[in-house]
Design brief:
Blueprint (H helix, E strand, L loop, with lengths): L49 E5 L6 H14 L4 E5 L6 H5 L11 E4 L2 E5 L2 H13 L3 H7 L2 H9 L3 H15 L11 E5 L5 H15 L4 H13 L5 E8 L2 H18 L2 E2 L2 E6 L11 H6 L13 H29 L3 E5 L10 H9 L20
Parallel strand pairs: 1-5, 1-6, 2-4, 2-5, 6-7, 6-8, 8-9
Antiparallel strand pairs: 3-4
This protein binds adenosine-5'-diphosphate and magnesium ion (MG).
Length: about 375
């Protein structure tokens, strides 16, 4: 019996090549944070079929999705990064100035494809394939009044987008192997992210029978299958992102029923000083304020710099503890890359850190007198 294809879409991409790229697996000796980080590699992330990268806006979802895609392709997984927003962000990061990946998709590295799901194109293709001809559907969907009506209608975008992800997960190459081993979804920011994944459940509670309910059921089963789908929350070691991550995980588990096995804490500041210079602030403060240090600024300026760097680092460590306490999940820390992610090797550093063994939350909890008030 053939598998039902509720959201068929054509895939005009070239077939993925599973050539492992040369991928540096050496780890930076000085990991930026002092909460115990291992350099042990953990490839369990790459055994999933779908990883949904979510979190507050600006925390690094696109960065993590891209780095994860690179890491997976480097380990020989045929990988697809799916963008769901109105603008592409992954393609410019991997191929600055290059053409957009669009709905048809592009292979940007051997074995690494990117595509952007445009819900209007997905719905047009879906209905067109149901009718056996796409032309009239495109014409109808180009009608401005209808587009405005659809613009205001809730839920269909999320459902058709998840439907296409479902279809991509089911797609086979001519050899009969899955077209993609891993699909990484650069999901909408927190808030939107929850409703994005919750729509199939909501649709089924409203519509109990018929093709819509059936299709929503297929998508929901995929999202809730812990062997296939994982939510990967990304946050920063800061107050609001830490709290929102706690809420996101609670709602995702309770309402959506999706598996979450770790939290990524992005852009951790480097430990500013080696251990033997940890008291440099006090030592500088003892110097006469006008002492001539040749090319260096005066001691009070250096004291202020040292104090800023150490307190910034201490604050980040505190919030790592807060994330650990609020989520109770293992943590994966990613370094803040000085100078931005477009410089050579920057994304590789993120990829390497993403594939390290997650750290137990107990080792990063805030001090007892520092507990979080929920
Ligand atoms: N680890 C990092 N080190 C340095 N800059 C980073 C890091 N992660 C993200 N950024 C930068 O922060 C900004 C937001 O990251 P992005 O991945 O676009 O977030 P999101 O997709 O969640 O909105 C971008 O300019 C990105 O280059
Ligand atoms: Mg983004």
């Amino acid at each position: 019996m053939s598998v039902p294809m509720p959201f068929p879409v054509s895939l005009p991409m070239s077939l993925p090549v599973s050539l492992p790229m040369s991928f540096p697996m050496s780890f930076p000796m000085s990991f930026p944070m002092s909460f115990p980080m291992t350099t042990e590699i953990d490839l369990s992330l790459l055994s999933r079929r779908i990883i949904i990268v979510s979190g507050k806006g600006g925390t690094g979802k696109t960065t993590v999705s891209t780095a994860l895609g690179l890491a997976a392709a480097a380990h020989g997984r045929r990988t697809l990064i799916v963008e769901v927003g109105p603008t592409e962000h992954v393609t410019p990061l991997l191929d600055p100035g290059g053409p957009a990946a669009g709905y048809a998709g592009r292979e940007l590295r051997p074995g690494l494809h990117v595509l952007r799901i445009d819900p209007f194109l997905a719905v047009s293709e879906y209905i067109g394939l149901q009718l056996g001809s796409r032309g009239p559907v495109d014409l109808v969907l180009r009608n401005r009044a209808l587009r405005q009506l659809l613009d205001g209608a809730p839920g269909w975008r999320e459902l058709i987008t998840l439907g296409k992800i479902w279809y991509l997960e089911q797609s086979l190459s001519p050899s009969g192997a899955p077209l993609f081993d891993l699909i990484v979804v650069d999901a909408p920011a927190t808030g939107h992210g929850v409703s994005f994944l919750d729509v199939p459940r909501v649709v089924q509670s409203a519509v109990r029978a018929g093709p819509l309910a059936r299709n929503a059921g297929l998508v929901e089963r995929l999202v809730r299958d812990p062997d296939k789908t994982l939510l990967l929350p990304v946050c920063l070691a800061e107050d609001l992102p830490a709290r929102e991550t706690g809420e996101l995980i609670e709602r995702m588990r309770d309402r959506v029923g999706i598996a979450v096995d770790r939290v990524v804490i992005n852009a951790l500041p480097a430990r500013p000083l080696p251990d033997d210079l940890s008291d440099i602030g006090e030592r500088l403060a003892e110097l006469p304020p006008t002492l001539d240090l040749c090319v260096l600024p005066e001691p009070p300026v250096l004291t202020a710099c040292a104090s800023y760097l150490t307190s910034r680092h201490a604050l980040a460590e505190h919030y790592v503890g807060v994330v650990a306490e609020l989520t109770g999940l293992p943590l994966v820390g990613l370094p803040f890359v000085m100078g931005g992610l477009r410089q050579p090797g920057a994304l590789d550093r993120i990829s390497e850190a993403l594939l390290t063994q997650p750290q137990s939350p107990d080792e990063a909890e805030p001090a007892a007198n520092d507990r979080v008030h929920r």
